[in-house]
Amino acid sequence: MSTSLFFNSKIKKRFDIFFNGSTIDTIARSSGFLQRSAKKISPMDFVMGFVLSCSQMQNTFSQWAFQISQLSGTPVSKQAVFDRLGPSSVAFAKALLEHVLLQGLCYRYRRP
C-alpha cells in the first residue's frame, strides 16, 4: 500500500468521527449548497476532496477535482469545482466548522 493511500485512509477515518454522509447532506441543504440531488459532486466528496487536497499540500482546483474524481469514480473538472464556489459554499463551510466545534465541545464536557 502506498504512503499516500495509507495517509488518505487515515484521514477518512478521522473525518468519519465528526461527519457522516447524512450529516453533511443535512448541513449542505440547510446552507443552500445542495438544492437538488448531487449529480457529479456530492457534498461529502466536495468536502473530503478539499481535506485530502489540503493534507497533501496541493491546494489547487486541479488537485481538488482529482481528489473528488477519485472519491466519486466520476471525472470532475477543475472548472466544475470552481463553479461550486460562491455564497452557498461559504455558508456550507461555516456550518460545517460550527458543527465540528460544537461536537468537540460536547465531547470535551462529556468526559469524566
Secondary structure: helix percent: over 70%
Tell me the series of helices and strands, N- to C-terminal: HHHHHH
Q: What is the makeup of the main sheet?
A: none
Spans of 5+ residues with little confidence (pLDDT < 50)?
none
Termini gap: 39 Å
Question: If you average the pLDDT, what whole number results?
Answer: 83
The total strand number stands at 0
Assess the beta-strand content as a share of residues: under 5%
- Rounded to an integer in angstroms, the radius of gyration calculated over CA atoms is 15 Å
Number of domains: 1
- Give the structural class: mainly alpha
The number of helical runs is 6
Any idea what the shape is? Answer: globular
What would you note in describing this structure?
By secondary structure, the protein is mainly alpha-helical. The chain has one domain (3-110). Helix content is 74%, strand content 0%. It contains six helices and no strands. The chain has helices spanning 3-18, 21-31, 43-55, 61-72, 78-84, 87-110. Helix 4 crosses helix 5 (78-84). The longest helix has 24 residues, at 87-110. It starts with a helix and ends with a helix. 21% of the residues are buried.
List the helices and strands and how they pair.
Elements: H1 3-18, H2 21-31, H3 43-55, H4 61-72, H5 78-84, H6 87-110
Helix pairs in contact: 1-3, 2-6, 3-4, 4-5
